[in-house]
Amino acid sequence: MIEECLVVDFHVEGDGCPLATASRSSGVAVDAQPPQRRADGTTLLRFSAADPDGSLAGALDADDRIRYLHAADDGDRTDFRCVSLSPCVVHRLVDRGFLAESLRYADGEERYTGAVVGRDVLGDVLEAAGETVGVSVRRLYPLGPEDSDPVAARWDITPQQEAALRAAVDAGYFEVPREATATEVAADLDISKSAFLERLRRGQNRLFGREFGDGESE
Predict the structure, then answer these.
(1) Is 25 exposed, middle or buried (0-12, 13-18, 19+ CB in 10 A)?
(2) CA 174 centroid distance within chain
(3) Distance (Å, rounded) from C-alpha 28 to C-alpha 134?
(4) Helices 159-171, 193-212: crossing angle, 10 deg rounding
(5) Which of 102, 125, 179, 210 has a Cα-to-Cα distance from 44 of 20 to 30 A?
(6) Is the preceding peptide bond at 177 cis, omega within 30 degrees of 0?
(7) Buried (b) or exposed (e) across 133-146, using 16+ Cβ within 10 A?
(8) Model confidence over 136-162: pLDDT tens digits?
(9) What is the CB neighbour count within 10 angstroms for residue 127?
């Protein structure tokens, strides 16, 4: 049994896949689940974004590589599902052993977060990254025993709450003194300050309720 598992963050530039193209042209940040490749070569996509003016939806709808686009408003965000006729860059890494957990498209760039089991597989994944234009490693660190499941699944928080918590940590929002304001973190997430603070509050309440209470906090 291989006991070592590593978390890897990949940084991607210059991707021409439909999600990357639509995010770049509309200026809308997209949070996506790992794409599911089908036997016929097409890809199932599921993602969400703050798209109040419909610019992201319009860009996707105009892309000939996208089929069966469905959009459903969920408060201040829109949940999308569709079929893509174009392969995703992340699949080149997945084919070599990368266990993708989340993808984010923003400011013309992408970030893939996931895990790799064992150094041998890591070598294969890094080799694939080196052969793919625009893909580089941003962070690499061991997965601890407490991190065996994705944060959202382990603590029963929503993907939006997890994104707000991660963004706050990455930006230094919880540092003393703070390294970023709520307005700055909200801008990074492409949401309003009030939406960010609400997600942060609900996410923290869930986490603290599970850790210190009865787990029923809302």
Answers:
(1) middle
(2) 21
(3) 20
(4) 100
(5) 125
(6) yes
(7) ebbeeeeeeeeeee
(8) 888 787 766 555 555 445 456 777 788
(9) 11
Q: What's the token pair of residue 177? A: 């003194």
Q: Which long-range contacts (CB under 8 A, 24 or more apart) does 32-41 make?
A: 32/102, 32/103, 32/104, 32/105, 33/102, 33/103, 34/90, 34/94, 34/100, 34/101, 34/102, 34/103, 34/114, 35/84, 35/88, 35/90, 35/91, 35/103, 37/87, 37/88, 37/91, 41/87
Under a CB-based contact definition with an 8 Å cutoff, are residues 180 and 173 in contact?
Answer: yes
In the prediction, which pLDDT does 217 show? 44
> Alpha helices, DSSP H only, in the chain?
18-26, 55-61, 90-94, 119-131, 151-155, 159-171, 182-189, 193-212
* Of 68, 59, 70, 61, the residue nearest 21 (C-alpha): 59
Q: What is the pLDDT of residues 160-198, one digit of tens each?
A: 788 888 888 888 888 888 899 999 999 888 888 888 898
- What torsion, rounded to 10 degrees, do the Cα atoms 155, 104, 60, 52 define? 70
Measure the CA–CA gap between 11 and 138, rounded to whole angstroms. Answer: 6
- CA–CA distance, 26 with 23 (Å, rounded to integer): 5
Could you tell me which of 32, 60, 36 has the C-alpha nearest to residue 47?
32
CB burial of residue 76 (10 Å; 0-12, 13-18, 19+): middle
